[in-house]
Amino acid sequence: MVSYKCFECGREVKFDLVRKKVRCPYCGSKILHKVTSVHSVVKAV
Ligand SMILES: [Zn+2]
């Protein structure tokens, strides 16, 4: 699942809100980080 994090206030912004208008609904910042929760574990054998 893709979510965004505001660069200014650091709050998580739902993708649904971002799609309507590309800005943070909390502080109005237009800079948003794309947050991906990917856990890549590399095992060295
Ligand atoms: Zn914000």
What are the main properties of this structure?
alpha+beta, 45 residues, 1 helix, binds zinc ion
What does this structure look like?
The protein has a three-stranded antiparallel β-sheet. The model has no long low-confidence stretch (mean pLDDT 79). The chain has one helix and three strands. It has one domain. It is of the alpha+beta class. The site of zinc ion has 8 residues, from loops.
List the helices and strands and how they pair.
Elements: E1 2-6, E2 12-13, H1 15-20, E3 32-36
Antiparallel strand pairs: 1-2, 1-3
Bound molecules: zinc ion.
Short description:
This protein has 45 residues and is an alpha+beta fold. The chain has one helix at 15-20, and strands spanning 2-6, 12-13, 32-36.
SS-derived structural category = alpha+beta
Supply the number of structural domains. Answer: 1
**How confident is the prediction overall: mean pLDDT?**
79
Low-pLDDT segments, ≥5 res: none
Characterize the main sheet: 3 strands, antiparallel
Helix content: 10-25%
What is the helix tally? 1
Placed side by side, the strands forming the largest sheet appear as 2-1-3
Q: How big is the Rg?
A: 14 Å
Instruction: State the end-to-end CA separation.
Output: 30 Å
- What is the N-to-C succession of helices and strands? EEHE
Q: Enumerate the distinct ligands.
A: zinc ion
Q: Total strand count, please?
A: 3
Q: What is the molecular shape?
A: elongated
Beta-strand portion reads 25-35%
